[in-house]
Structures are given as C-alpha cells and as structure tokens.
DNA sequence: CTGAAAGCGCTAACAG
DNA sequence: CTGTTAGCGCTTTCAG
C-alpha cells in the first residue's frame, strides 16, 4: 500500500499538496497536479479509506438490514438499493437479521460505526420500545423499507398497499366476480391491514357487501391457513368464486390448501395474490399477481436516505413514500363466470 | 461518541491502561480494571472500530461476492457464511457482481480495504488473466466458492459435483431406468463437466452405454434448451425413459420444454435435476432433485478462509474442499417402469 | 498556491 | 502493573 507521503516524495511536493490534488478541494497549480497524478499512476496509489474515514467521519458506505435474505423479495430490493448507492459512489453492506428483532438491533449497532446511513426492513412486528427508538435516533439516519415499524419516526418507502390490493380486487370484479373472498396474513402487520382496507374499498366501490364470511384472517402458518381455507371454502354458501390473498406466503399456502380440498384454479375458483410467489412462469398454472416495484423501492429508499444524510440532524420533513404496484394477469384469474351456471 | 481518553479521565487512569483493559492483552490491576469498566458503563463507551482498524490493519469483517443475489442458491450460501463469520465475531459484507466479471474485479478492489478475507463466487466463466490473478494475490485472502475459476489458485469449497450427479443417476438406475438421458448447461463450466462425468461414471458402473444421443449438451438459454429437448425427445428411439438435468436452470427450462412437447413427469418420463429449482414442494409435481449443502458450503468456506487468514502470506497447502450433496426423492422420478409395456 | 503541523481514536512498545 | 509516547494515513487549518 503506497501512501500519500510516498507520493509526495516521488512527486517532489508536500503531503498536503498531494491530498489537495486528490480531494480536489483546493486549487493546485497545474504543474504540481501533473506530477502528483503521474506519481499516483506509477505507484498505483489507492487512498486508504480507513484513514480517510477516521479523519472525515464518513464512510461512503450504506447498510441494509433485511429479515431474511433467502426470501426472493428482499434480494430484489437490495438490487435496487445497491444500484442507487453505486450511482453515488457508495458501497452497500447487506445484513440478514434472521427475522430476529434482537439481532436486528445488534446489527444496527454494528452498522452504526461503518455506514453513513441505513435501510431497514424491520423484522419486528411489534412496536419499538422508546429506548430502542432513541438508540436509532442517535445513530446514522435510517430509512424504513417495506415494513413500517410502529414507534419509530423515520422516512419510509414502501408499496402502496391499499391501492395495490384494490387493483387486484378490481381485476376480479371486472371479470364478473361478486363473491370475492380475501385471505390475509396477521392483521397485526400494518401492511396487511392496509391491503385489507384496499379490498374493502374496492368492494365498496362496487357496492358489494364485505361479509365477515368473506374475510379470512389468517397468518403465515400453513396449518392455520389450511384451517381457514377449509372453513371458508367448504362450510359456506354461496361459495366465493374468487380468492384474493394479501401476501405471497399466505397465498401460496392457501393455494396448496385449495388444491388439497379438491379445488383448482382457475377451474373452480379464480385466484389472485399479492406478491409473486415464485419465479413468474415456472409455476403451473401461472398465477395472476400484484407485483411490487421491488427494484424501485430499493432505489428510491436510497435516494431518500441520501436526502436525509444531506440534511443531517434535521428531523424535519419526514417523507413517507408509497410506490404503485402492477397487476400481472396470468392464468389463475381466468375463471370465466359467464360460461358457468350461476 | 465517547473516546478512550474520556474514559481515562473519568476512571482516573491513563489512556494506555484503558486500552489494556479493553483489549485484555496486558495484565491490569483489579482496581484499575474495575474503574475503567465502570466508566465504560457510565459513558456507554463503544470503541471506534475505524480507528482500531487504522492502527491494527484488521477489520474484523469478511466479504462475499456473488454473481446474482436474486438466485435463491446464493442467499443460502450467504446464510451459512454469515453464521460462521458471526461465530468468530466477524461481520459479513455482501456484494452482488451482477454476473459481470469486470464488476466483480472492481468489487474485489473495493473490498480489499475493508475486509480481512473474501469469499468469491466468480461470475466469470472465462479464465482469469494473469494480471488479475496477481491483483487478487496482492489483496486479502480469497476462497472461491461454488464456481471454480481457471487460473486462480485459491482455496476452494464447493459441492462434490461428480459424486452428486452420480447419486442422481444411480437413483434413476435403481428405479429400473436404462435409457437415461442427461441435459447439461455449458460444458465450458467446470461444474458442468464434472457433473457430466458423474453421469458417465454411474452409467458405466451399470454397464450401460452412454450414447452421444443420450448426452444433450445445452446451455442456460431457454430456446436453445428447447431445441435440444425437442431433438432428443422426438427424433429419437428408443426414447429415453428418464432425464437427468445437471443444473437447476437448465432443468427448469427442460421441464417446460418437455411439457410443451406433450410429455409429463413422472407420467411419460422420469425427471431428476441437480439443484432445487424453486421452493421445495410448491411446484406441481414435486421434482426429485440433488440438493446442495448450501449452508454448509458457506459455513465451511468461511472456516477455510479463517484458516488462511491465520497463516497470512503462506500460500502453502491450498485446500480444495468438496461437500456431499443429498438426493431428495419427490414425485418426478416416480415413473414405474415395471408397470409399463416396454 | 504550498508546506508544515495538528490530530481523528486507537494500539503497542517502552520506560518507569 | 501503569503512564508516556509514537504513529496508522489521511484531511485540514494556517502561515508563509
């Protein structure tokens, strides 16, 4: 590792001048600049970032904490975030909190010293304690992504949950469905609440009742979901002609459950889910879904983070960004009601 | 941020003693230690890692570069690696080279200053230039994972490709299949070569010929794969009763192709693939596959990396670790030959 | 415009 | 055992 001191010697100038050339902050004579640049080339100089960080207290690095990197949704967000970071010459560190709120807190602490800002997809469904929220506030700026924690007032970027859900339900309505059931994950999650709200709004706009029998509040647990589907599909009449799932995991499990109960899609029930379950068209039949703008979410979140970093120690003007989702129509919603006896 | 100097003042000792208490390297009197510990507690001191790094030239951080974080295989490896890193109090930085060899090289350069060692899943199928190999050798130790680059002599950790392929083919043999075709990705990749070798070995052990008509050398391109499948399945007799795919992507495409040609699995052809295509049992029918020990690979790779870091600048004794894969029998290989007319 | 010098926070000798 | 000291490599005053 060559140092600026060595450069200075070779270029015949002082270390300060070398630094000025490199940072470009101060004006330097053309002659000196050329000599230094030449020395840099010859010695293959690369600045020591650690030393620079120690001095400047900046790291040119961002961090992102996700609950589970093995869930396809998160890598896609990471992609967008990394791209945005790179555009600004920043580095992105990825951490996986393994769905543990405690670990997430640890990681926030670890990142604190290494990054200038943090993207957080929180693992905690629960509220943040005031103590923990304060600890966050003391560190580098945080932007919350996807999951919106309660008790933490940071900038946020996520999908327009209710609008997206509405989009999916409207699609089913446009196909003639009127008995549209919805299956949700845990309603303790804000996202789930909002998606349910979107369902309700769409139904209401179509002047349809939203009987409690159509609203299946489930969870992320397969057995639980199965029980809910069973109750909803078998013991009920009129049976729903369509099912909307508010998240990918619940939707996936519901789908399995549905098959096991002898239903098919789009054969006997139309099906639309929030989130792509699995790579687009490898699944048979291909599932109609609400696709989140994952890349855009990650990218935008980093932009918001940079904005926040720029006005340090200024808690003013918290932004809560909502990005629109897209409806991707595939096979599972192709149940033709007109052709069926009612 | 409180500093050791402030601790020293509060504890009424010198900065050096504070450092000694913290690092635990030198013996310190019980009285002094208690005072310092107390000061740490009161001031909520956290050591400045940047400063420490500048001094010690160590970062307590490892890096991993993967070609595409959105491919499920890599996050699983990352999981294992992170766990192993954490066990030793290390931090893991994840980078995505977006399948670009050039970007990968850039990233190696960026990591160089920030980590003590690197796990690399190279994106390059091609050989490494001597120049680039030399650049690697100059930086922190690198352990290559999964893909084995040509022209780079580092420690390596990956699955036992040929053994794993052999396992899959033997499974088909044990079910009575004799006409077993194999479809591969690009044979420029070492892994693919070795997997094909495993196929050959299994067939040979069963005293079966490996006609060139059974060996379908394809790629990662869907159209290409489709053409190869078409040629193999339609124009040929006797038709193979089983197909073994040497990687997940090629297998997935082959499967689609197979369906589009009117074949089903296990209905008309048994199918086994290397790698899980997609989350285990969401796929219908569930696919029998060779599952790589992803977590173990990541974990082991970090262990090997630590070993290497321990004996710095000692290129001796390069280890090439091969971990065994597992056969997971599901539906797609359940074609019962005995029940069919031959 | 340039050189000298201070110091970011920490560690690691080295005397006392 | 403890205090003093000298840097790690860089940025940033501040005189000249």
What features would you describe in this structure?
The structure is a homodimer of 342-residue chains. Chain A is of the alpha/beta class. Chain A folds into three domains: 4-54, lambda repressor-like DNA-binding domains (434 Repressor (Amino-terminal Domain), Orthogonal Bundle); 59-159 and 294-323, Response regulator (Rossmann fold, 3-Layer(aba) Sandwich); 161-292 and 327-339, Rossmann fold. Chain A is built from twelve helices and twelve strands. Chain A has helices at 4-11, 15-23, 30-43, 49-56, 73-87, 101-112, 130-138, 161-174, 190-205, 222-234, 248-260, 294-310, and strands at residues 61-66, 91-96, 117-120, 142-145, 155-159, 180-184, 215-217, 242-245, 270-274, 288-291, 320-323, 326-328. A six-stranded parallel β-sheet of chain A has the order 2-1-3-4-5-11, with helices on both faces. Chain A has a six-stranded mixed β-sheet with strand order 7-6-8-9-10-12, sandwiched between helices. The model of chain A has no long low-confidence stretch (mean pLDDT 90). The interface between A and B is large, with 36 and 35 residues. The structure holds a DNA duplex (16 and 16 nucleotides).
């Amino acid at each position: 590792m060559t140092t600026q001191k060595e450069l200075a010697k070779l270029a015949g100038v002082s270390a300060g001048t070398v630094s000025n050339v490199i940072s470009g902050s101060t004006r330097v004579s053309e002659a000196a600049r050329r000599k230094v640049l030449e020395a840099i080339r010859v010695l293959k100089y690369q600045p020591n970032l650690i030393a620079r960080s120690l001095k400047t207290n900046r790291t040119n690095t961002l961090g992102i904490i996700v609950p589970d990197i093995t869930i396809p949704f998160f890598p896609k967000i990471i992609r967008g975030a990394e791209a945005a970071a790179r555009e600004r010459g920043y580095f992105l560190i990825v951490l996986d909190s393994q769905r543990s709120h405690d670990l997430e807190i640890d990681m926030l602490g670890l990142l604190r010293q290494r990054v200038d800002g943090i993207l957080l997809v929180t693992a905690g469904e629960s509220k943040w304690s005031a103590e923990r929220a304060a600890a966050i506030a003391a560190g580098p700026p945080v932007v919350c992504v996807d999951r919106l924690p309660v008790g933490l007032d940071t900038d946020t970027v996520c999908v327009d949950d209710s609008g997206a859900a509405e989009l999916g339900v409207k699609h089913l309505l446009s196909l003639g469905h009127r008995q549209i059931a919805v299956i949700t994950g845990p309603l303790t999650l804000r996202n789930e609440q909002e998606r349910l709200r979107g369902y309700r709004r769409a139904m209401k706009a179509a002047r349809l009742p939203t009987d409690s029998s159509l609203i299946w509040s489930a969870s992320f647990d397969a057995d639980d979901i199965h029980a809910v589907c069973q109750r909803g599909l078998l013991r009920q009449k009129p049976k729903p002609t369509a099912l909307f799932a508010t998240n990918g995991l619940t939707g996936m499990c519901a789908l399995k459950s549905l098959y096991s109960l002898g239903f098919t899609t789009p054969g006997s029930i139309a099906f639309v889910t929030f989130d792509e379950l699995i790579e687009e068209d490898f699944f048979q039949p291909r599932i109609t879904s609400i696709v989140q703008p994952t890349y855009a979410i990650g990218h935008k979140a980093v932009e918001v983070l940079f904005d926040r970093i720029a006005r340090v120690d200024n808690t003013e003007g918290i932004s809560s960004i909502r990005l629109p989702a897209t409806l991707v129509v595939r096979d599972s919603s192709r149940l033709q009601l007109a052709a069926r006896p009612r």
